[in-house]
Amino acid sequence: MVFTKFVQIGRVAQINYGEDAGKLCVIVNVLSLGRVLVDGPLTVTGVARQKIPVKRLSLTEFVIKVPVGARASTLAKVLKADDIIAKFGASKVGKKMAIKKARAESTDFDRFKLMVARKTKARAVRVKLAGLRKQ
Fold this sequence. Notes:
- The chain is of the alpha+beta class.
- The chain is 44% helix and 21% strand.
- It has four helices and five strands; from the N terminus they run βββββαααα.
- A five-stranded antiparallel beta sheet has the order 4-3-2-1-5, with helices on one face.
- The longest helix has 27 residues, at 108-134.
- The mean pLDDT is 94.
């Protein structure tokens, strides 16, 4: 089968557009072909219960077992029990998000230190290669 991620109840998704962009949520109910009801819950991920178009979601590989229309407290318990937030942070997409956030929050001095470190590394590699070529 080609597809592995389906719009289903309990699917953890990332919002990719709007006020809550970059935050995780859980699909609580499927309203129509193009809209779903999602909940963060607000205390865990900062996303309030709302209707959202499927086009504004990026589905993750994580699915939790929750009933249709589960309450925020139930979602919070399951998310903490399954440690979904930490698992997402350790995934490929979560790591990319962390890197992107760190770059956006870096200061001018941080970028300067990174440039100097890259130059130092490149010089060390050149010196080592030159030594190997002489042999």
